[in-house]
Specification:
5% helix; four-stranded mixed β-sheet; mainly beta; Immunoglobulin-like; 1 helix; single chain; 354 residues; elongated
Length: 354
């Protein structure tokens, strides 16, 4: 019997080591001679009673820890978020008729590429077109200012727009006005040197002139300075604009003598006696006019021009004695400066009337 008890105790100890029976359930030597051992199965097993419940020790099942998976199941993917679609206009440069327009491209950011461009308003210059890639190109055929709106559409159908404006100049043309000769009065300043009436072109311009007439300096479209030598002078210039359009202009200037007056000191006169003073003019253009810009003539006298004889005459019958001082001026029909036509003015003259 003691041999059976020893076997039973060893078996219980083995179960305790495996987590089946607590050590407190091991029977003591004072227990009944034939103990019945109740073995509790692992969780979810049905135990079988071998003896009376009141005398049968039971082993409480150990609670095994539950483990939680370290990874979670991924959630369904959401739709991607896109930045707002924005269209950006480039800085359009000026164009010129007959000159290929340098390609320039609209910009777009955000949205979903690829992008597609089209014209949604206004009009491009004649001869230019907008590609699906947003590039403006072509060769202008008409001058003017053209405003338009470009529309960009992304892969989702979302749109954005950007404005544009292009100035197109006429092709650079010199339109020389002195190719067959321009008559210029000697001593003319500034206003006499115009030799062209240019049209079109895009600044800045570069120039390659030949030597201008003496005392003048080159300018476009007019010479600067003063003509100081009588004679015939010719020169030419090639003008090129920033878009490489060019024009050639030649000019001839026929410089004629400045108007002048040959005069002397006027004689004296007497009241109620016919008076005549004569001076001779030359040079200039057309029939000059005569005036007294400062001072005064004796009462009863007046100046006049005799174009047939080329003279300036002061004549009449004096009515009041005295000494009268004045300046005599003759003015022709040619412009000589920004202030007026060419003229000649005498020094101070005096007529004494007794």
């Amino acid at each position: 019997m003691s041999q059976h008890r020893a076997v039973a105790v060893a078996f219980i100890l083995l179960l305790t080591a495996c987590g089946r029976v607590p050590l407190g359930s091991v029977p003591t030597p004072s227990s009944a001679a034939s103990p019945t051992v109740g073995i509790s199965p692992v969780s979810q097993e049905s135990p079988t009673d071998a003896g009376s419940p009141s005398s049968t020790p039971t082993a409480s099942p150990r609670t095994l820890p539950k483990t939680t998976p370290s990874s979670t199941r991924p959630s369904p993917s959401s739709s991607p978020t896109y930045a707002p679609l924005v269209a950006s206009p480039p800085s359009f440069h000026a164009g010129e008729v007959r000159i290929a327009y340098a390609d320039i491209t609209f910009g777009a950011t955000g949205g979903k590429s690829p992008y597609s461009w089209s014209l949604s308003g206004g009009a491009l210059p004649n001869g230019l077109a907008l590609s699906a890639g947003g590039t403006v190109s072509g060769t202008p055929t008409l001058a003017g200012t053209f405003s338009f709106t470009a529309l960009v559409t992304d892969a989702r159908g979302v749109t954005a727009s950007a404005p544009g404006s292009i100035n197109v100049a006429n092709y650079l043309t010199g339109n020389g006005i002195c190719t067959k000769g321009c008559s210029v009065e000697n001593l003319c300043v500034a206003v006499c040197g115009t030799y062209a009436k240019p049209v079109g072109g895009v600044a800045p311009f570069t120039y390659k002139p030949s030597a201008p007439p003496p005392s003048t300096t080159f300018g476009w479209p007019a010479l600067a300075g003063q003509f100081t030598s009588v004679g015939t002078y010719s020169f030419s210039v090639t003008v090129t604009d920033s878009l490489r359009a060019s024009t050639y202009v030649s000019a001839i200037f026929n410089v004629f003598p400045h108007i002048s007056l040959k005069y002397g000191a006027p004689p004296g006169g007497a009241v109620k006696v016919q008076y005549t003073y004569t001076a001779f003019y030359s040079g200039g253009s057309g029939v000059p006019t005569v005036s007294i810009p400062k001072g005064s003539l004796p009462p009863g006298l007046r100046p006049s021009v005799d174009a047939t004889r080329g003279t300036v005459v002061i004549s009449g019958i004096p009515t009041t004695p005295g000494s009268y001082s004045f300046y005599l001026r003759i003015t022709d029909s040619s412009a000589c400066s920004t202030s007026g036509n060419c003229y000649f003015q005498t020094s101070l003259l005096t007529i004494d009337i007794k």
